[in-house]
Design a protein that fits this description.
single chain, 5 strands, 14 helices, 341 residues, alpha/beta, five-stranded parallel sheet, elongated
Length: 341
């Protein structure tokens, strides 16, 4: 592979040639949405999500056996992979119930600090999905009659009846029959899961609620929530953790393995463990750091050989720590470094 002028031109344009590392598909650490229905993406999900999968499978199995909702509360900081884990749970639910394309995951992320009103809006989202799936004209009038539009002050038992009707409608009135799952992003009210536990008490569907692990006015407080018994009997709480140094080590090795199984990973992994153990990044930020370190090493390389013959492309432990410290303290765009938060 030629270097010289071509190599300098690439760097001047801010580009890097990942093929120097034998990476034909580009950056192995790019952070992107993963689809658990894809075998390769599912493997990547299982690599980084430190979740209690045995408990999740048990919750899914017990809900199926008892004909009740399979409910989960996923708590975690930004970029910890809550939504990716939710999609993985949805995939497991689909496989457990042997569903095909007749399973649809409805995502609801509108903010509302009134739990009853938010539950009502969730039911409207289900209704709208059914009208779209079944043909607007065929199902519109009846579904709008049962779950009407317009602002109201709902009663919780009325919402429970609506949820039961929608569940029965999708499975017995629609051709083909559908099964819906719910992904409700961002939980504001401490009593929201209690409300959902009543509204969906007689419905066997998947419900995943995510919660930001921050103490703000827009986030339900987990300590106060834990004083409530109803939702804890109904939903499995899952804490999506930050990553230790060992976790980031595993992430670096496994992502590399998926892209270049025949080549040695260039990171000196002790440096990864030592650098990130104290920082405890969420998975999204860890991937961003690994990508940045790999690209920065390529930009600093002036040789013509490729990895692993080019030992100057090795990423040593001390260089990892020093580069991360410089990036954390550098002003934006200082000397080619860009701050990584």
């Amino acid at each position: 592979m030629s270097g010289g002028v071509g190599s300098r031109a690439r760097k001047s344009q801010g580009q890097v040639d990942f093929k120097r590392y034998g990476l034909t598909q580009g950056d192995p650490y790019r952070h992107r949405d993963l689809d658990p229905r894809n075998d390769r993406d599912r493997a990547l999900l299982l690599d980084f999500v430190a979740a209690p999968f045995d408990e999740i499978e048990q919750q899914l199995g017990q809900a199926a056996a008892n004909g009740r909702a399979a409910a989960f509360l996923l708590s975690g900081r930004e970029a910890t992979g809550r939504t990716s884990l939710a999609k993985l749970i949805a995939h497991q639910y689909r496989e457990l119930h042997q569903l095909d394309d007749t399973f649809k995951l409805v995502v609801y992320d509108e903010k509302n600090h009134n739990s009853l009103q938010r539950a009502q809006e969730v039911l409207k989202a289900i209704r709208n999905e059914l009208m779209e799936l079944g043909g607007w004209g065929e199902h519109r009038d009846r579904l709008l009659e049962v779950v009407p539009n317009g602002p109201t002050q709902p009663e919780i038992l009325d919402l429970q009846a609506q949820a039961g009707y929608l569940a029965n409608y999708m499975r017995k009135r629609m051709k083909p029959a559908y099964t819906l799952g719910l992904l409700i992003e961002g939980m504001q009210e401490d009593d929201f899961l209690d409300t959902l536990a009543v509204v969906f008490a007689r419905v066997d569907l998947l419900i995943v609620v995510t919660r930001d692990d921050y103490h703000t006015a827009d986030t339900a407080d987990l300590d106060r929530m834990n004083e409530r018994e109803r939702w804890r009997r109904w939903a499995l709480p899952v804490q999506v953790p930050l990553l230790s140094g060992e976790d980031v080590d595993l992430l670096a090795r496994n992502r590399w393995q998926h892209e270049a199984a025949d080549l040695e990973c260039p990171f000196e992994l002790k440096g990864i463990r030592d650098t990130f153990d104290a920082r405890r990044p969420p998975v999204g930020r860890a991937l961003h750091w690994l990508s940045w370190l790999l690209q920065w090493r390529l930009r600093k390389y002036d040789g013509d050989e490729c990895w692993p013959a080019a030992r100057n492309l090795r990423i040593p432990a001390q260089w990892i720590e020093e580069s991360v410290q410089q990036a954390e303290s550098a002003p934006p765009h200082a000397g080619g470094l860009r701050r990584v938060r």
